[in-house]
Design brief:
mainly alpha, 296 residues, single chain, 9 helices, 0% strand
Length: 296
C-alpha cells in the first residue's frame, strides 16, 4: 500500500474539501431546508413539495446565489476539516500497519475511516450549526443573523461555547460510522476499478470520479438519518430538546413517523456523487503534485 505521509494527507485533504463544498453546497442548502421545514397539519400544504420545488422557490425569492447561503461557514471550516479528516484516515491506516508497505483489509480501512470521523468533529460541529441556522432563516421576514461571524457571536452570547458546539454527540453519531463507510468504499472501488497489472496511481480521472462519487453516496446511506436528527437539534430554540438527540428522535417518531428520518434524501444523493467525486479528484491530483514536488 505504501507509506502514508501526514503532511501530504493534510494538504491534499484540504484541497479536496474545498472542491466538495463548491460542487455540493446548493443541494446541501435544499437538504437542510427540507429537513427543518415546519411539520404540517392534515390538509395543510407543506412549505416545499420536494427537492425541485425547494430549489425553484429559493431561486425565485433569493436569486441563484440563495442556494449558496451559509457557504462561508463550511468553506472556512472545510479546508482544516477535510485536511484533518484525511490526516486522521492516514494515521488510522498507519496505526494498523506493522510495516509501511503492509496492505490493509477492508475492515481495517473502515476502522481508519471511523478515526477520521472522530478527528473532524471538533471542527465540523460549530460549522454545521452556523451553516444550518443561516440556511433556514432565509424565509424569515427579519434575519436574525447577518452572516457566519455574527451568528457565531450571537450563539456565544446566548449560551457560550456549549451553544456553538450544540449537536456534538449527534455529529459523532453521524460521522464516525459514515466516515468508516466512506473511506472503505473508496478503497474498495479504487481496487476493483484498477486494471489488472496496473497501479492505482495510474487510475484515470473518470474512474477516480466514479470511486469518489459512489463513496459519497454510500457515506450518506449511513449518515442521512442521524443527519436529520442533528439538523433538527442544531436549529431548534435553546431548551427545546433538554435530553439532546434522544428527545429529537422521540419527538420525530411520535409526530412524523420513521420516514421523517429520511427527509432530504433526494438532494443528499443528488449532491453526494458530484461533490465527493470532486473531493477525491482534488485529493488525488494534489497528492500526485506533492509526490512530484516532494518525492519520498
Amino acid at each position: 500500500m505504501g507509506k502514508t505521509n501526514p503532511y501530504k494527507d493534510f494538504v491534499s485533504g484540504g484541497v479536496g474539501g474545498v472542491c466538495l463544498v463548491v460542487a455540493g453546497h446548493p443541494l446541501d442548502t435544499i437538504k437542510v431546508r427540507l429537513q427543518t421545514m415546519p411539520h404540517t397539519k392534515p390538509g395543510q400544504a407543506p412549505l416545499y413539495k420536494g427537492t425541485w420545488d425547494c430549489a425553484v422557490q429559493t431561486v425565485r425569492k433569493e436569486g441563484f446565489f440563495g442556494l449558496y447561503k451559509g457557504m462561508a461557514a463550511p468553506v472556512a471550516g472545510v479546508t482544516p476539516m477535510f485536511a484533518v479528516c484525511f490526516l486522521g484516515f492516514g494515521i488510522g491506516k498507519s496505526l494498523q500497519q506493522k510495516s509501511p508497505n503492509d496492505d490493509l483489509t477492508y475492515l481495517q480501512f473502515f476502522k481508519a475511516g471511523m478515526l477520521a470521523g472522530v478527528f473532524t468533529t471538533a471542527i465540523m460541529t460549530p460549522g454545521e450549526r452556523i451553516k444550518c441556522l443561516l440556511q433556514i432563516q432565509a424565509d424569515a421576514e427579519v434575519k436574525k443573523y447577518a452572516g457566519p461571524v455574527d451568528c457565531a457571536k450571537q450563539l456565544y452570547r446566548e449560551g457560550g461555547i456549549r451553544s456553538i458546539y450544540r449537536g456534538t454527540a449527534a455529529t459523532l453519531l453521524r460521522d464516525v460510522p459514515a466516515s468508516g463507510m466512506y473511506f472503505m468504499t473508496y478503497e474498495w472501488l479504487q481496487h476493483i476499478l484498477t486494471p489488472e497489472g496496473h497501479s492505482r496511481t495510474e487510475l484515470s480521472v473518470s474512474r477516480t470520479l466514479i470511486a469518489g462519487g459512489f463513496a459519497g453516496m454510500f457515506n450518506w446511506l449511513v449518515a442521512i438519518a442521524p443527519d436529520v436528527l442533528k439538523s433538527r437539534l442544531q436549529t431548534a430554540p435553546a431548551g427545546t430538546y433538554p435530553n439532546g438527540i434522544r428527545d429529537v428522535f422521540k419527538h420525530l417518531l411520535r409526530n412524523e413517523g420513521i420516514f421523517a428520518l429520511y427527509k432530504g434524501v433526494t438532494p443528499v444523493m443528488l449532491r453526494a456523487f458530484p461533490a465527493n467525486a470532486a473531493c477525491f479528484l482534488g485529493y488525488e491530483v494534489t497528492m500526485k503534485a506533492l509526490d512530484w514536488i516532494y518525492p519520498e
